[in-house]
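ok new one. same drill as before - C-alpha cells go in, u give me an amino acid for every spot. 370 of them this time. try not to just spam alanines like last time pls lmao
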C-alpha cells in the first residue's frame, strides 16, 4: 500500500479514545452501545462500568434500563459472547456470524454433542415455543425436551455457557429477555427490542457492520475485523471482498507501516488526533481493548498480554497512558490498586482517572500503585 495515507499509532489511539466516548463522554447508554457496535456483556457489571465511564452523567444500571426500554437487546453475538447491541447492529452481526455456519462443522459436533440436523430441529422447536412466551432456561429446557427426538439434549441445554443455544441466537431465533429475579430468560429479538429488522443477507450486513466497526476501532485490516467478529471463522476471501465492495467509503492507510483501512470520512480527524495526556482507568472486558484485540502489540505489549487476557477468557481492567495499555488495576475495598507493566513509567497523575471511576461507580476511592 505505497500510496496509502500514513498515520501513527498515537494518532489512531487518540482518535479511538474520542470516538469511543472515553475522552468525550456521551449522553446515553444507547448512544454508547451504537457507537461501539455492541458492549461486551458476558459480565453485566463490566458492561455497566464501560457505559458509566463513557457517560457525561453516569446513572446506575443505565444499560439495564435501556434493555427494559427495549432500545437495545442482549444476545450471543461477536465471538460467541454476550453483547448488548442496538437492533441494527445486532441484526448485521448475527447475520455475519451465522454465515460461517460453525455449528455444521464436525469439530462443533464433537465439542458440543449436537449434529447440524439436531440444531435445525432444536431451532424449529425453540422458535415455536418462544413465539408466545418468554421463558427461563429451566422452562425453555422443559418445553424443548418434551418434544419428540430432543430429550437427549437436556444436559447440553442446561449448560451455563449456552453453547448449544448460540447457533439459535446467531440465526435470530432467540435472545436474552428481561431478568426474572436473578434468573435469565429467553425471548425473540422481535419482542426484546423495538424495530427489530430481521437478519439481512450477509453482503448487506457487511456493508453496515464494517463501517460501524471502523468508526470505533479503525483503522483496521479485514482480518482484524473478522477476529473481533468471529474469531476468524469467516472465509478470508469473503471478508476481503466485503471491504473491497465498500469502495470509496474506505481508504487504505498505513499505521506505523502496517497496512489497513479507515473510513474516508474519518481521515481528517485521524490526522489531527493525539492521545489525551494523563492516565485513564478502564474496566474489565472494555471495548477499547476488545475492539482491536489483545493480540495488537501496539496496544497491549506482547510481554504483558497474559496480565490482560487471563485464563478463562477474563479481560482485566486496564491502565491506559498515551493510548496504550501500560498496566492493570483491581478494586480492594476503597483502594484502586494499580500494577504498571515492567518498565512502564508509573502513572504521574491519577486524580482525574480516579474521580471518573468514582462517578461511574458511586464509591469513594483512592489510588494505590502496587
Amino acid at each position: 500500500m505505497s500510496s496509502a495515507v500514513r498515520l501513527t499509532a498515537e494518532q489512531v489511539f487518540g482518535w479511538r479514545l474520542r470516538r469511543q466516548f472515553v475522552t468525550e463522554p456521551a449522553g446515553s447508554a444507547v448512544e454508547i452501545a451504537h457507537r461501539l457496535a455492541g458492549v461486551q456483556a458476558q459480565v453485566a457489571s463490566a458492561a455497566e462500568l464501560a457505559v458509566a465511564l463513557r457517560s457525561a452523567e453516569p446513572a446506575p444500571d443505565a444499560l439495564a434500563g435501556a434493555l427494559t426500554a427495549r432500545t437495545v437487546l442482549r444476545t450471543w453475538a461477536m465471538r460467541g459472547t454476550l453483547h448488548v447491541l442496538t437492533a441494527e447492529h445486532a441484526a448485521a452481526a448475527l447475520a455475519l456470524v451465522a454465515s460461517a455456519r460453525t455449528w455444521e462443522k464436525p469439530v462443533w459436533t464433537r465439542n458440543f454433542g449436537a449434529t447440524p440436523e439436531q440444531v435445525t430441529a432444536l431451532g424449529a422447536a425453540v422458535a415455536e415455543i418462544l413465539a408466545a412466551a418468554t421463558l427461563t432456561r429451566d422452562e425453555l429446557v422443559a418445553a424443548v425436551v418434551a418434544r419428540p427426538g430432543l430429550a437427549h439434549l437436556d444436559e447440553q441445554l442446561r449448560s451455563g455457557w449456552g453453547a448449544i443455544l448460540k447457533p439459535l441466537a446467531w440465526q435470530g431465533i432467540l435472545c436474552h429477555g428481561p431478568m426474572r429475579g436473578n434468573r435469565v430468560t429467553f425471548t425473540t429479538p422481535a419482542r426484546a427490542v423495538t424495530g427489530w429488522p430481521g437478519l439481512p443477507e450477509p453482503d448487506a450486513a457487511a456493508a453496515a457492520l464494517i463501517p460501524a466497526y471502523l468508526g470505533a476501532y479503525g483503522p483496521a485490516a479485514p482480518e482484524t475485523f473478522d477476529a473481533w467478529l468471529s474469531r476468524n471463522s469467516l472465509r478470508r476471501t469473503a471478508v476481503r471482498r466485503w471491504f473491497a465492495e465498500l469502495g470509496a467509503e474506505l481508504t487504505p492507510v498505513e499505521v506505523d507501516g502496517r497496512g489497513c483501512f479507515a473510513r474516508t470520512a474519518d481521515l481528517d480527524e485521524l490526522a489531527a488526533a493525539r492521545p489525551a495526556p494523563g492516565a485513564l482507568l478502564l474496566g474489565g472486558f472494555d471495548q477499547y481493548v476488545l475492539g482491536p484485540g489483545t493480540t495488537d502489540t501496539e496496544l497491549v505489549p506482547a510481554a504483558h498480554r497474559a496480565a490482560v487476557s487471563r485464563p478463562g477468557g477474563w479481560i482485566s481492567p486496564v491502565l491506559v497512558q498515551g493510548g496504550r495499555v501500560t498496566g492493570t488495576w483491581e478494586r480492594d475495598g476503597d483502594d484502586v490498586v494499580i500494577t504498571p507493566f515492567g518498565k512502564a513509567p508509573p502513572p504521574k497523575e491519577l486524580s482525574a482517572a480516579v474521580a471518573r471511576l468514582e462517578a461511574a461507580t458511586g464509591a469513594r476511592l483512592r489510588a494505590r500503585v502496587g
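The mean pLDDT is 95. and btw Residues 5-12+219-272 form one domain.
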